[in-house]
Sequence to fold (932 residues):
Amino acid sequence: MAWKDVCPVALLTPNRGVAALFGEQQVAIFYVDPDDEVVAIDNIDPFSGAAVLSRGIVGSVGDALTVASPVFKQRFDLRTGVCVDEPDVRIATFPARVHEGRVQVDV
Amino acid sequence: MATLVIAGHGMVGHKLVEELLDRGAPGEWEIVVFCEERRMAYDRVHLSSFFEGVSADELSLVDPALLEVPGVRVHVGDPAIRIDREAHTVTSAMGRTVRYDALVLATGSTPFVPPIPGNDAEGCFVYRTIDDLEAIADFAVGCRSGAVVGGGLLGLEAANALRSLGLETHVVEFAPRLMPMQVDDGGGTVLRRRIEDLGVHVHTGCQTTEVARGDRGQVTGMCFAEGDPLEVDLVVFSAGIRPRDDLARGCDLAVGERGGVLVDERCRTSDPDIYAIGECAVAAGRTWGLVAPGYQMARLVADQLIGAVDTTFTGADMSTKLKLLGIDVASFGTLEGGEEVTYVDPIGDVYRKLVVDREGPRLLGGILVGDAAGYDALLSMARGDLPTPADVAALAAPSSAPVAVGADQLGDSALICSCNSVTKGEICAAVCDGTTTKAGSTCGGCKQLVATITKAQLRALGKVVSDAICEHFDFTRQQLFDLVRFERIESFAELLALHGKGRGCEVCKPAVASMLATLTNRYILDGEDASLQDTNDHFLANLQKDGTYSVVPRVPGGEITPAQLIAIGEVAGEFGLYTKITGGQRIDLFGARVEQLPLIWERLIAAGMESGHAYGKALRTVKSCVGLTWCRYGVQDSTTMAITLEERYRGLRSPHKLKMAVSGCTRECAEAQGKDVGVIATEKGWNLFVAGNGGMRPRHATLLASDLDDETLIRAIDRFLMFYVRTADRLERTSVWFEKLEGGIDYLREVVFEDSLGIGADLDEAMERHVATYECEWKATLESPERLARFRSFVNSDDPDPTVVFVKERGQIRPARADEKAAIR
Fold:
């Protein structure tokens, strides 16, 4: 594991995402409430090609924790990266954690 | 193959074509239809809805695919004009001659125009076709008043049309009461009072002797056998109809004493190869002016043509329930041969008469004016489908009328839709098979009952009928709104804990955020609210396909100073934004990255501009023309009114976006009739239109009220908007909401102007609160470092988003296509 530092966790709005840049890689990071958990996925929406998944609305489909792309509204499972609406489509997920008050991801 | 010629493509002629297609007739018959009008069959029963914004296309009954069906030809705009019985041919106006094996006359009827001097003056019309209605609407522009000759069913529809065109309206009836064919004196009196309450002038027992003309030959008034003449600019004749039997007379078929083609109980004329159906036929000794008997005849002839069931026409149920000028009028069963029980409410203007056979007792029929409560159940009793209770007399009062027919009370054979002859059993079977019936599709009188039966059957099948907003709440948007309001719920988390399940989603979260915004008018991005908003509301800008945003400053009424124009131009130039003029008289600036948004707004606000809410489900813009200030034709100051309205309703969160417009005269340059709220100036004030729409599903707005002063106009819009905000579904524009509104425009008028729901003060107060607490969201954002914190592309870097790439086109930027991006890399 090579944890990379992102920002203080206090900067994240509960159930809302932020984007982080690591070289060419854009990561969407969400702080999930009330679970007190951070999750990270690829920020690029595969349907539109735009780097916007961090700006989607967090919610649930059945038991799955999801984010809906703000462009065309497809929903992605935040833990597996699978698109709930088109399960053939899957985006990358990244390990994420809060360590000593700071968000870290393994990209 | 044999040839069938149908002369006439009205509702009944078309029904025959449909019935033949259903029976697989094109294998046996080649069908040739002559259609006189330039439009194929359309719904004449709802003709008047044309004035409420329903288009000719929407009224059409014909699936365009009909023209592609092999073996069916429709000659549009080409009436049959001659029959040669010996040669078995029909000749049309355009000179087509077709040999027939069977011929069906479905030529309908023609409006009767009394033979009085001036009946063909410029400004005289009849009320029968869409062309007639278009001509009336065109001519009415610039007219002040109009009269309808004839106070029957169609006459009152025509009167409603004149009223909705903003004319002072008169109804002139020869008989001593309105609707003399359908109601008795008592019902006529109630009807008259109700219609007069609407501002329509009623003249009964009045014989029109002449239409007065001016020096150009145009209508100037009407003269009567007795009494003073009347000044009017437009006259509509609706004094009954006459069967069109000229084709039959031309080839010596037998006709009735008072006109109409004589037919036997199988609808055959005196020539066994020729049938007549619908309003042109005299069947069972009379003509039939309703669509249901016409459809019955069409089905009967279709059966015979394919050699099937041997049915006959011996008469038809003439029961009807309709809303005339918003007033319930129903007549059902037979009105003779029994005891009469009458209920009269002279205060509420309700008249109900039931005719009962003492034996049994059994309900035979009745007349209901002003309140048709219990019509479905009463009709079922008169038909024998439901037992008549012993205390039938009590049913005359609306308060003790049978509430509604329970679906399980009716047998499978009970006739539900008389227009299309559909029984309860057939509706239930269709629900089971997942197919549909035509029940309720013609006059619509049975719709409520059809819905009840359908829901009961769905429930019986174990299928839940759900209008729930999403999987997290078992409620509609309206129910959620009420829960939030009545329980004073302050947050999404609270609502979810009390009434929902799961985490919420992209459907319910923004919907609830919008309700909280409407009810509290608080800043939409503080605390938990920030997590509920769509990205547009979250960044107070409009997301574009490449992840950048567009910015639209408010330009109230489309009025903008040169200095503001320059400021917008400078901002666009400095930030390299693409600029485009919007349809709502504003300027849209594209290609801004999130971190640029606060910088752009700082500049715009310094130049005196504010948020245009182009990103929100909220008021967008109030478009206007220059009105009387500059325009030679303007009659009111439309620009000032537009600015007033825009500044009043800016920022109001609603189920969907809201667009408005104000035109300074009837030329309507602001296109107000395509807006959610449209205001058009008149000499006396403002006409208020509502529920119009452009876009994907255009809808012509409906007139809510005429000649309002400024204050009344604004109060009416306040209530209309708040009522819509409280009762519409999520993402439901006013046009769709209005079309689903039971009771339609009359109901809405009652809510807005008569406060029929008793919520007027509440709606007014809610709007006052909105107006008093409005603030520009961008100004509020710039004032707070905390609120500004979210405007970053990356939380760990100040670099711009590397996926955003522009190329130049026509001197401005546009997002690069994938191939262009690849080339740049």
Q: What stands out?
A: Strands of chain A lie at 4-8, 17-22, 25-32, 37-42, 57-61, 64-68, 75-77, 93-94, 96-99, 102-105. Chain A has a mean pLDDT of 94.
